[in-house]
Amino acid sequence: MKIKELKKILLYFLKRAVAIFITVAIAIYLTIVIANAGGYVDKIVEDEIRMSVAMNIRNDPTIRGYTDEQKQKIIESRVRNELRRRGLDQPFFIRSIYHLKRALLLDLGTATTMTSDSGSMLVKNIILERIPLSILLFTTITLLEFFITLYLGLKLSRSYGSFLDKLIVYLSPLSTIPGWFYGIFLIMIFYSWIHILPPGGFMDFPPPTDFLGKVLSVLKHMILPVSSWLLSFLFLGAYSQRNFFLIYSTEDYVEVAKAKGLPDKIIERKYILKPALPPIVTSFALALISSWMGAIVTESIFNWPGLGMVLFRAIGSFDAPVIVGITVIYAYLLGATVLLLDFIYALIDPRVRI
Amino acid sequence: MDNMEFTSSYSLKGIIKEVIKSKAGLFSLFIFFILIVLSIYAYLSMPYNEVKTLWNDSQAWLKYPRNAMPSWWAFFIGKNLPKNINLQEPKIETISDNPKILKYVYNFSYFYDDFPSEFNIFLKSSYKNNPPILRVYWINTKGDKIFLIEKQQRSEADTFYLGNETSIEENLTKYIQEKLGYYPPFPISAMKGLFIEPNENQSIAKGSYSFIVEVQFSDKSDTIEIEPIIYGKVYGIAGTDHLRRPLELGILWGMPVDLAFGLGASLSITIIQLILATVSGWYGGVVDNLIQRLTEIYMLLPFLPLMIMISLFYKLTIWKLLVVLIILSLFGSGIKTQRAMVLQVKTLPYIEAARTYGASNMRIVFLYIIPKILPPVIPGLIISIPSYIFLEAILSLFGVLDPTEPTLGRIIEDAFQNGALYKGFYYWVIEPSIIIILMAISFALLGFVIDKIVNPRLKEI
User: Fold this and answer.
1) Residue B317 above 60 pLDDT?
2) What is the 3-state secondary structure (H, E, C) of chain A?
């Protein structure tokens, strides 16, 4: 019985994974088409080839005696040969397939000026080394957001009409202001004005030597970004959760449970929370996907060295390969988020298992 | 969703009446009224293009103070902060005829609680052979005459930045040292030296001052125009930025741009999505399938990085970017919910009636279905306007928008780039932010109010 259910979930998960992968591939393909309308993707590949050819020629003893002009000619002809070998002199459609394959394999070329912290110029390394930090911030915020609004929503729906309930309803328009915007004000208050929290960054400088100190330092730097986001999401989030719970608490089976004299805790958990969870997760998922956008801005406002920061720096130095690379990575991240949510959905929604 | 929602009737008039009845609706309408009146006033007094060139003209603002706070800020601090003092109407005396030396004496009084920010002299002269030589003196409240600097003009139009001259600082330090009897233990900048009470407190000497310029011409026919300006620390109702531009200009003329961007984006995206959703729900089959799959792809499109990439690579203006934005949001998640509504409306009797008398598909889609599902969509339309205004701010913040265009986001970006939060120029961030917040909240309130009217199910809750 259990194994059968698990099998069903896995099958569903696999199906979704394939579908999402195809969607991500199409999204990446669109990115490539858009970027290449200005020739940027072609140029990324050509620069990479030119660099490796130039390297080879510099190390080639047979060409040592040649003048610079002759060397340049050799480089040009080799680059052209290499382009032809890779099929890059073909029409755009075929080239774009080649680019897509590379992008899907995260072969994103080399950056023009930026380097990763480890010194690598590969776009892949520059971006991938920042992902853990982005995910750390993003998941912390997401989890806090989810559980706080869930708790508040339940509480409000129980004390429907109370002062707190009305307050949250009145404050809910404040949620149209995005988190990063609150961030500006939080920096102004907690850093510029009362000087108790750092304005941004990831760790104190110089970093603490012991592990505990490091963790505490990171936590201290996370307070402002996390609370700016929470502040923005809290009111509307709690408000909509409360609405869900109110709708589900008027169902007949809840009345029956009440009539049976079941304790409030059990009614709340088994009769209201459980059936309300799937739609809550769906609406939460939509909010989550759109909040990836906010993540980029929040990171650059708070100098959090994640993906958003890389994008910000790449724009500053007009590093086209990095910008295209980040767009590709974000498509993957979005896909992964959706897949994860699908998986959670399958776990909590019994209909998927049937 | 039940059919109840679609059978309740509401006219435009009814909606407006209900909005006016509620406090929140009234509040948001009031805010809009103020914003609209302000922008109409702004655009009538000066057309946008003129403001745009003026905004980017670095020469136009030379006589304004740099990073000056708004005048009302002084009220919070409780200090009488200096305003700009344009020294005018000098007493002109002739000292000698050969060589021609003229003495310009400017008398003024200074009663502010803070030092001025700068002291520049704008010079315009016409000369035959050599530009005139200027000797500048200062008489403070004690009546002591201090020699400040001797300098020759470099060209016909020249500016002396007295605040940047180290020799002035040295002369003033010498004077204060004489008065104190020992070398001053605090640094003396030119502004401080000019207006300080020569004692330990470093307080400001309030009273009457004289500013004297002796001009020695090389030829008798030479003339000069002198315009000394003592720059204040407050200016106007909104203050100035790092390029001395008065912020109210950027805010007043930028606000309608933001509003138009948000409104245009939200309106066109909602209408296009509505049409797509109706087509998808009405026709079904292959069309439906295609639109639904496209919606799923669009959901995974990394929207913001794409927007940034496009505006960075192709250097688009804000209006072209609006088109890109619309294209990138064509198949947004709104289609899913609207299609669900269409599927319900499709089964209503009046549609069947229309079908039986042979109404065309187009007629049914545009005249029968869309008007029916439009009202429940309106709140979403209004609530999503701020998100596009914030998108403009985000793109400005990343520095990918046209930098010559004054918008609210642009001003915030300028403030950020120039460290307004770290240097204490809070007004610079707060002013555009407050306008954006006011817009966002009033749109949200209006949307929520209308939502309660057209989706009556929310009313019970």
Assistant:
1) yes
2) CHHHHHHHHHHHHHHHHHHHHHHHHHHHHHHHHHHHCCCHHHHHHHHHHHHHHHHHHHCCHHHCCCCHHHHHHHHHHHHHHHHHHCCCCCCHHHHHHHHHHHHHCCCCCECCCCCCCCCCCEHHHHHHCCHHHHHHHHHHHHHHHHHHHHHHHHHHHHCCCCHHHHHHHHHHHHHHCCHHHHHHHHHHHHHHHCCCCCCCCCCCCCCCCCHHHHHHHHHHHHHHHHHHHHHHHHHHHHHHHHHHHHHHHCCHHHHHHHHHCCCHHHHHHHHHHHHHHHHHHHHHHHHHHHHHHHHHHHHHHCCCCCHHHHHHHHHHCCCHHHHHHHHHHHHHHHHHHHHHHHHHHHHHCHHHHC
Q: What is the CATH number of domain B14-55+245-458?
A: 1.10.3720.10
State the fold for domain B82-231.
Answer: Jelly Rolls (2.60.120)
Residues 6 or more apart from B12 whose CB is under 8 A from it?
none
Q: Encode pLDDT of B89-138 as tens digits.
A: 888 888 888 888 999 999 999 999 888 999 999 999 888 888 899 999 99
Where along chain B do the CATH 2.60.120 domains lie? 82-231
Lowest mean pLDDT among A14-28, A258-272, B114-128: A258-272
Partner-chain contact A40 B313, CB within 8 Å: yes
Contact list, A34 vs chain B (CB under 8 Å): 306, 309-310
Q: Which of B422, B437, B441 sits opposite A192 (nearest CB)?
A: B422
Tens of pLDDT, residues B192-245: 888 888 777 788 888 899 999 999 988 888 888 899 999 998 888 888 988 899
Q: List where CATH 1.10.3720.10 sits in chain B.
A: 14-55+245-458
Question: Structure tokens of A345?
Answer: 């959905």
Task: Give yes or no for A312 touching B (CB within 8 A).
Answer: yes
Chain A residue with minimum CA distance to B446? A173
Read off the pLDDT of each residue in B81-91 and give the average, rounded to a whole number.
Answer: 88
Residue B286 confidence class, pLDDT cut points 50, 70, 90: very high
Q: What is the pLDDT of residue B280?
A: 92
Q: Reply yes or no on whether the pLDDT at A210 is more than 80.
A: yes
- The ipTM (two decimal places) reads 0.85
